[in-house]
Design brief:
2 copies of one chain form a homodimer. Chain A is α+β, with helices and mostly antiparallel strands. Helix content of chain A is 31%, strand content 42%. Chain A has a 4-stranded mixed beta sheet, covered by helices on one side. In chain A, helix 1 packs across helix 2.
């Protein structure tokens, strides 16, 4: 059976997100999606790379999607870029 | 015939890289790879998204690769994350 987890990368420091992701995998989750917007995008990539090194040969980057969405209140709307990094446990 | 361009995203502001990318496509290049490291990764995603909106329906994101590399002098080495975003002109 496969299960999926999501990690939203935001203001905290990178190790927090690395630990959260590794914890999900260690609890048996087979796929974790790391999501971020705006400036946190770099941190999401750092997180994925650190998880890959930490769980060497056990986890791989399956897909990376970029996009953008509108945020803010009406009249103050602006677009921010987004990223989704799909990490999967190797068989 | 297909040709390929590379844009290295660094310290400058995003519009510089958007313009550089759009210029390459307008000169007939069929594939542009936007590359960045570290904090500039978010800017690379912004660049790709802005090019996509600017050249609406003419360009698509073909691939996004993330990785990491070692930088710095011996004894001061550290790893930085990297991204490569492949934009291609649609047929």
């Amino acid at each position: 059976m496969s299960s999926e987890g999501v990690i939203l990368v935001g203001q905290k420091q990178t190790p927090n997100y690395v630990l959260a992701t590794v914890t999900q995998f260690s609890q048996g989750v087979t796929r974790v999606i790391i999501k971020a917007r705006g400036r946190a995008i770099s941190k999401a990539v750092d997180t994925a790379e650190m998880v890959k090194r930490f769980l060497q040969n056990k986890v791989e980057v399956k897909d990376v999607k970029i996009g953008s969405e509108e945020v803010g209140e009406p009249g103050k709307k602006r677009r921010v870029s987004t990223i989704e990094i799909v990490l999967e446990r190797k068989e």
